[in-house]
Task: structure prediction
Amino acid sequence: MKQTIQKLKDRSIFKVNSFLTAKITKEFMGSPVEKVVTLKVHELGEDYCLADEQDCLDYTIPMRKILFSNIITIDGMEPIELAAVYGLEPKTERFRRRETNK
Result:
């Protein structure tokens, strides 16, 4: 997964202002809770990105460091499927045509 996201980053498909979905830990009533949220990328590192929550009205929430291994979707698509669309990875079952009329 990390290599696929790195390829997307190198080809400028995954870049600043991209939206991603990731699992993060938030605090709820004093205890940590894992939650899947949509984030907007502000900075890209070697194997991580800095992002903040999309449509969050609380300005005190800091940017989060999201490792590439924790990313679920990029711009609404799974990273492997997104790479398959651009020809960076082999096509997945979703894109293969089935011969049903034989």
Notes: Residues 2-95 form one domain.
